[in-house]
User: What shape does this take?
Amino acid sequence: MRALPVLVSILGLTVTLPAAAQEPSPSYEEELVVREAEVVVEPPEGMSESQRQALGPSSLLLLEDGAFREITAVRPLTPDGGSWSLLIYVDTGQSGRETLARSALALARRAGRLAVLGEVELIVADPEPRRLLAGTRQPAAITTALADLAATARARPEEAPAALDLAAVQARARRLLECVATHSVGGAKALILLTDFMLTPPPAPAGEDAAPSPRLLAAFPEIGQALAAFGWVTVAVGLTAEEVKRPAEELSEMGRLQQLVRGGRGIDHFAPLEAGRPSRLNTPGALDPYLEPGTALLRALLREGAGHLVATEPQLDAALAGLGRRLLVAYRTPAQIDGRPRALEMRLLAGDLPLRVPRWRQSGSPEQLAEARGLRLLAGGRAPSDLPLTAEWVGGAEPLRLRLTGAPLSSREGGPLRLSLVFGPEAAQHLIVPLPEEAAPWRRELTLPAGTRRLAVLVEDLGRGLWSGQLVAAPESDDGQ
Assistant: This one.
């Protein structure tokens, strides 16, 4: 998101920062900055290329948190325009051997199409993310990296399904979020996620309920919101069966859908069918992921970012072609930077037609990312030292208090700051700290929950994307407890 200097206006509001006793409270003038944001939009199914190219700011209506926003530009993307940043991400512990190999080979065969879409990067988490291919538009390099990934997958021994461990899956999901957060490029971004779709858990012991299936995304409910807020269009790819020719006697696609309706089974979303038009659903196995109950959370994640579910190669072709037909829409927003996602809605004015668009936009680093970083600190990880931070305990009895102090900063340099206290996987607190116009040290004194003995403290500059953090332990009491 880029600030537009010509749109800055001073409101002349005087706000005081809480400070320690006997110290004067600094004042500052709060600035309302109108910024330019971008969002990738999917045009309506069946829209002709000439109609798509003719779309402009006056053709669309955009709401952000329910408020109208001024659209400044509409840029139709093209399949060969190089406009996309493509991040292929695979967690080897959450992808079956054959699923990973077939999906990687399918992408390798389409290396040329990926390269013309834009720059391609390959990340493999096993479990820590590592880069196998730096960003490139060279088809040969993309093919080699994906073919090597497939060969490595096929060389793995067959293993029984791992024991269910939702805590481990949550950690993997947080690693994904931390990984994509380092890709701060703007414009059109697609996360091509190689994953399994068969999410049915193993049989539970007699008398017990079946445990939820441990999948990368299913155990981290808000990751879809965070990915969408960061601007990622997620394409989940899981090719689990070899392509076979569709028997002539098999029901037509419309017939199959009619059977589903008559049988009381529905699917969350499918594109309208047009007579005589080839469809990505007209392939054996194409509908299976939409009907599998275990994929519900994955499908919900894809809806958050207006993404695609790919179970067959025709669906993969359609997904890549769909990326090349999207629109990059720029608009102006006065929304404050506070780390909270902004809900988006867009409509085509002609016909008042809703458009598929990521449901959220980033307004600074999302709180989910701060919690992921805090949990990594609790597990022994490190944090950068971009923002000096001092943490000290105040008093030795309940309620415990923690005093946080930072180096001098001003609103002209960045900000606002967000302080995050992470106590564990299910417990975190966040606080926004505005900065004065003139550089001055900042200070906050916070009351901690009873019984707190250890926590991670983070400070983030939401305007500049800088952050620091540290692990803080409570002082030992006099009796050594």
User: Anything to note?
Assistant: DSSP finds eleven helices and 24 strands in the chain. Residues 253 and 407 are 64 Å apart (CA to CA). The mean pLDDT is 77. The longest helix spans residues 139-155.
